[in-house]
Batch of 2 targets.
Target 1
Amino acid sequence: MKKNKLETSFTSLLELVGESANLKHRGLLPHADVTLLGVNESCGDKIILQLKLDKDGHIKQALFNGESCSLSALGAETMCALIEKGKIPKPIEEKVFLKSLNFNFSPVRKKCAYLVWKTWQNYVSSKFKPAVQKKSKK
Amino acid sequence: MLKFEGMSQDYFPILKKKGAKGIPLVYFDNAATTQKPQSVLDAMNEVYTSFNANIYRGNYYWSEKTTIAYDSARQKVASFIGASAEEIVFTRNTTESINLIAQILARDYFKKGDEIILSIAEHHSNYLPWWQLAQTHRVKLKVIGLDSEGYFDLDEFRKTLSSKTKLVAIAGVTNVLGTISPLKEIINLSHQAGSLVLVDGAQLVPHLSLNVADLNCDFLAFSGHKMYGPTGIGVLYAKKLWLARTEPFLLGGEMINDFDGQAVCWANLPRKFEAGTPAYVEAIGLGAAIDYLNEADFTAIQEKEKLLVKNTLSGLKDIKEVTILGPQTIKDRCGIIAFNLKGIHAHDLSELLAEKGIMVRAGVHCAGPLHSWLKIPASARLSFGAYNTLKEVKYFLKTLQEINRSINYEKK
C-alpha cells in the first residue's frame, strides 16, 4: 500500500533512528591527531569528531562519537565519509554535504543535521588559511 | 463535581487548527508558552481598534482610557497574587524581572564573601544572573541538589544556609521536573538566617494559587505568556518597603515626578521602575488572561491538570522503556513531566510525536545544570494547560507505545 507523505516522513525518521546506532564511522579513535567538539546547546547534542593524519597531514581516518540525535549522527557520518574521501583538510561545500546527506529534514532540525558540518567548517577556516600561508612563504 | 466547561478548547481559536492531512493537533508544550483565549485576543484588539494612545501622557480621552485599562490590569495582577498594585512592576518577562533584581542587588546589596543559594533544578533565567554576579562580585554560589525522589533537598538546604547567605533564589515549580518547592519552609528558614528570597514563579503562578503576603517572599517573577496572556509582558513583585527605598535601575521617560536638570524626584511606586513606554497593550492582555483564569475557575483548572498528570504518569509507567525524570507520583508536582524513551534521543522522539500532531519539547529546556547533574544529554517534556484533555493524553500514550514498539521491539 502506498504510504502518504506524513507516514513516509514518520517511517523514514523511525528507520534513521534504527540505523543511527550502527553507522560506519561511529567510534572512538585512540591517539587521534585532531579532536573537534560540536555542541548544540538547545538540544543537548555533543559530538566529537576525531581524525588520524598521516605524516603528510592527510586524513587517514575520521570517526565520531558522543551524545546526539539520529540526524546529528547522520550529519556526522556524512562528514566523516566526505573528509576521508577528500584526504586534505578543506571546507566542504554546503551543497555537496546536503547531497551526500540525502535526507529530508524539517527546518527546525537544520541545526542537528549541520552540527558537524559547521564544526568542520569552523575548524578548517581557522586552521587553514591558504592565502595567508602563501604570502608568508619566504 | 468538577466543572471543566471554562476550559473548553472552544475558547482558544488556535486549537481548532488541524495538522497535515487533517490529523488532530495536541499542544503539550504549555511550560514554554500557552495558547491564548479569544477574550485575550479581543481585549488587545479592542485597544488598537478603539482607543489606543500612550499611557500617563495625554490629557485626552484615548490616553485616559488606555491608562485606566493599564492600571486596571496591574490591579488584576496584584489581586491574583495577593499583593498591592504598588508592588507590581511590569517587565518583559520572568527573565527580565530576575535580571532587574540581580542588577539592583549587585549595585546596592551584595558584598564580597556573601552567599547565594539556588537549586540545581533552576532554569537558566534563575541561574545565569546569579552565576555571573558570583563571578563579578566575589559572591559564592551554593547549589542545592535534589533528594533521592527528585524533590528539593530541604536537609541539604538547612545545612547550607548560614549568616553569610544573603539571597535564596528558587523556582516555585521547577520547569523540567514539575516539582513544587517547599516555599514556606525555604522562606521562613531564609528569613531567620537574614536572607532575602526570590521566587521564580514562571511555572508556579499559572498553575497554583498563591498569596505573596502569606508566602512572605521578597520577590516573585513571572511571565504573562505562560498564563494565557500575550508575550512581551512579565511581572516583578517586590515588597513595597523594598521598592520604596530602592533607587530605580532603568532611567528615562515617565518614571519621574519632577526633573529640572539639577535634581530629580522619582515617580511614585511602581512607576519609578517602569522607564519608557511599557508594553501596555500586552499588560491589558494579561489582565484579560487573569479574568479568564478567574472565570474558568482557577481551582478547577488545577484539579484538571492533576488528573492529566496522574493519568500520564500511570500510562508512562506501563511502558518499561520509559524513564520518568524526578518524582514518580503526583505528590507535590504540577503539570510538567519530563521523560526519556530507551533507544531514541529526545529530539528524535519529539519529531516522531510531532509527525503525529503531538507537540512536546525536547532538549535541556534551559536547564543545562540539571541535565548535567542527572547525567543525561536531554529529555522530552510534556506540559499541560487548561485546555488539554484526557483524550489527548490517551492519544499521546497510544502513539508513544507505537513508537516504542518500532524502536525497541520490531527493529531488533
Target 2
Amino acid sequence: MSAANAAGWRPTMGEAGDAGPRFTTASGDYALMLKEPLSFEIGRSDKFGVDLDEPATAPLAGLPLRKAAPDLPGLTEPETVRHYTRLSRQNYAIDLGPFPLGSCTMKHNPRLNEKVARLPGFADVHPLQPQQSVQGALGVINELAHWLIALTGMHGVAMTPKAGAHGELCGLLCIKAAIEAKGEDRRVILVPESAHGTNPATAAFAGFKVESIPANEAGRVDLEALKSRLGPDVAGIMITNPNTCGLFEPDIKAISDAVHAAGGYVYCDGANFNAIVGKVRPGDLGVDAMHINLHKTFSTPHGGGGPGSGPVVLSEALSPFGPLPFTARTADGVIHLVEEENAEEFDHRQAFGRMSAFHGQMGMFTRALTYILSHGADGLRQVAEDAVLNANYVLRSCEDLLHAPFGATGPCMHEALFSDQGFAQGFSTLDVAKGLIDEGFHPMTVYFPLVVHGAMLVEPTETESKAGLDRFIGSLRSLAERAREGDERLHSAPHFAPRRRLDETLAARKPVLVWKGEPGVPGTPSLSEIGGS
Amino acid sequence: MRYLPLTPDDRTAMLGVIGAASVDDLFVDVPESARLSGPIECLPHHASELAVERHMSRLAAKNLSAGSAPFFLGAGAYRHHVPASVDHLIQRGEFLTAYTPYQPEIAQGTLQVLFEFQTQVARLFGTDIANASMYDGSTACWEAILMAGRITRRGRAVLSGGLHPHYAQVVKTMAKFSGETIDMRLPELVAEADDDAVVAALGGETSCVVVQYPDILGRIPDLAKIAEAAHAKGALLIAVVTEPVALGLIEAPGNLGADIVVGEGQSLGVGLQFGGPYLGLFGCREKFVRQMPGRLCGQTVDAEGRRGFVLTLSTREQHIRREKATSNICTNSGLCALAFSIHMTLLGGEGLARLARINHARAQAMVARLTQVPDVSLLNATYFNEATLLLPSDAREAVRALADRGVLGGVSLGRLYPGEAGLANALLVTATETVSDEDIETFATELEGVLA
C-alpha cells in the first residue's frame, strides 16, 4: 500500500516510478475523480427528499405498530442526486465504450425504447385492470409474440419467463409435461460440457438428472457420443447454438433428428440468437424450445444486472404445455388474457401452470418491440451479419498474437474465442482482462467456456464502428504482446481504475453483506480510514 | 439503419482482412437448406423513429392508465408517487447500460448501490442480511420455500390462505416438478387472518409456513404467534410482504420471529408497468447465508487497502456449482433495485413511516366512505392500505361496470379466484397517497350507481 493513498479513493498509479499524482489533495478527490461514501454514512433517518404532510387520522386499533421508524438514512433531493451521480461515475458502461463480454451481447440501447416504455399507457397500467381497459398493453404482448414466432419459425411462445434462466426452466417444464402426458419416464437431460452454468442448474432445478456430453476437437458436440447415450431414459438435450465457443453447430439437424428419433426433445439456449436472427430460423433446425434473452438480442438495457426477459418459443409438440397466462386474439379483434379460468375455452388445458405473478416483463416487451419495429425484418438480418462480421474481424486481426483454438476450423459466429496459450510463464487471461481496463475498455468474458484453457470470449456486437473496433484491436494486440513478453505491470493491473484488484477471497471468507457501522460510535472505523470523506 | 455504424466501405474492407468474399461465407456452418435467402417474408422492414413512436403511442393510447382515472387497485402491485429524480438517476447510462458487475474495479457504482440496497432491505425486513434481489415477489417466495427445505431437510410447506393466489399458483406449479409437498388453502371471508388454521396444519414434516403480511385480503396476521408455533415444531416462518410501504407502520417480520422474509419491492421506485419488471426482495438470518439463492454483494478491500465491493459467495451459484447450485437464477433485477434504493434514500426511515401513515389514513377515509354505500360492508378487523369489501352481488361485474364509467375500482376476488362462488362478491380496494378525496367520492358515487 502506497503511503500517498492513505486518504482513500483516487486513481493511483500505485507502482514506484509510475507517472501519477505526486501529492495528496486536502479533499482526497482529484478533479473529476470523486469518491463517495455510503448513504448510511452521510444520511440521517429524519432527513428526506420528499415532502409529506402528517395525516390527522390516528391508526386503527389492533395494528402491530412499529416501535420506532425503520433505521434507514434519508437525504434531500440535491444530496440524493449527487450521491447516485457520483456513484454512477465509478461504472463502466456501453454508453462509454465497447463492452465486448462474450455471450452477453452488450449492444447499444436505443433511447426511443426508453421513451416508449415510459408512456403512461404502458408504464402506469395495473396488471389486474379489467381487460377492456388494457387492450393496447395486451396488443404489445401479442404483436411481440407474433414477431418472435416469425423470426424463429416456431409454433408458439411463452411470454412470462422473467430472464434467460427462467426461460430455460419454462422450456424444460414444457418438456417434462409433454413426457408425463405421454406416460413416459425420462429423467436425464444431456448437456454439452461447454454449456453455460445455468443449463445444468436449470435441469437440476426442474428435477432432471444432468449428464454431460463431450465436445469434439472442433469445439462442437460430439455427435457419435450423443447418439450412443440416447435412449428411453433421456428426456432431451440442452444445446446452445451458436455454441459458447462462438461456433455454429453444423450437425444441429442430425442432432435434432437423433434426439427426436429416440423420443427426446431439443432445448436450445438462445443466448446467442443475435448471431443468426434473420439468417436462419431455429424451427427449421428441429428445435423444440428456445428462450430468447430480450436483454441481449433485442437490446433491452442490462441495468447493471437485470431486469431481463426470457420468452420461450415452442414447437408444435410442446406448445400445448406452455404456461399461463398468455394472450390470444379472437376474430372480433379483442385480445384476451388466457388464465386458469378460461384456459379450456382457448383449448389450452394442458398448461403446466404459472411461472410468476402477472404477465411477464411488460416493460421489456415495449422496449423489445420498439427495437424490432425500428430494425424490421431487413434490419434484423443486417444485425446478425454485422455482428458476425465484427467478431470475425477481431478474430483475424488478433490471431497471430492471441491463440485462437478454433481459428483454423473456419469462421466464428458473433464472438471470437482466444486462449492464454503462448503467454509468458505466470501470465494469465486475468492479466489481459485487467489490462484492458487500464486501456479504457471493458474486458471480454474470461475463463468461459470452461472447455478452453484461459478462455477469452470477445463479442463486439453490431453496434461497434470499424474505427472503434480498430482501437480495441490495437489495445488487445498490445496486451497480448505484453503478456507474451511478461510485462510485470500487467500483474498489478488495473492501475487507473477507481479500485485496484479487489480481495475476493476476503469477501467470501468473512462475508460483510450489510453495513453495520454507526457513525460516531467508538470502534467504528472513521470515514477517512475506510475511504469515505 | 440508424443503429448500425458499419458503412458499405467498412464491410468491404473488413471482409478483405478476414479473407472472405462475402458475408455469407461467414455463415458456412449453417446447413444450406436452413439458410434464409433474404429478409423473412410478411414482416415489415425498418422504420424511422417517428413512425415507430407513432405506432407504439397508438397502442399506449388504447389503455386506460392509472393516473387518468380514480384508481383503487392493489393485490400485489401498488401505485405510489415516484419522485422525478428516481427515473432521472436510473437513466444515467453508467447505471442503465452496465452489465452485471463481474469486473468490480470498474463497477463500484453498481456494487456500492447493491450493498446499500441489501442493507436497506435487511433493515426494512428486520433480517440480518438480504440479497441483491430476485425476479419478483412470487419467484422469491418459491425460492424461499426451496431454501427452507434445504435448511430443515423436510419437504412439506404450509401456505396460508392469505398468500397471493398467483404466488400460490407459482409454488404449486414449481412443486409439481421439484417434489415438495404443498399444503395450501383458500382464504375465508372472515375478519381475521387464518393464523389458527396455519398453526393447526404444522407437523413434524413441515419445513416452513408461508404467511403474507398484510395478507391478500388486507388483514394483518399475528406473525409472532405463528413463528413461535412453527419454531416449536422445527419449522421456519417465511413472511411474504407484497406492499413494503406497510413496514413503515407495522412491525418488521424479522422482528416478530420470521426466519426468511421475501417480498415484492415494486411499490418503491418501480412503476406498475402492467406487471413487470418488478423486484424480488429476499432477507433471512445470517446463519442461512450459504443456502441463499441469488447474487450477494459483499464488502472487501483492494490491493491498496481501500474499501470496495464485489459479488461474493458465488460458490452457491450456477456459474460455479452448475447442477449443484442453490438456484438457477442468473439475472436479477438490478435496475429495479437501484430505483428502490434511490426512492428509499429520498424517504429515509422517518419519511417511509410518514408515507405509511398517509397510506393508512387514505385507506381509512376510503373505507369509511365506501361502507356508506348501501349494502356494502367491510370484512377486515385490521388493514393497512388495502381492505376487502363485501358487495351484494358479483364484484367482477361491478369492476367491469366501474371501468366503463371511468373508475378503476379495485380487484375482484372473482378475478383472483375464478370459479370460487363463495368469494365472488368480495372486492379488494386499495388507497395510497395518490388517491384524493375527490377520487374516493367519485368511486363511492359510481359504485352506488353500479350496484343500484
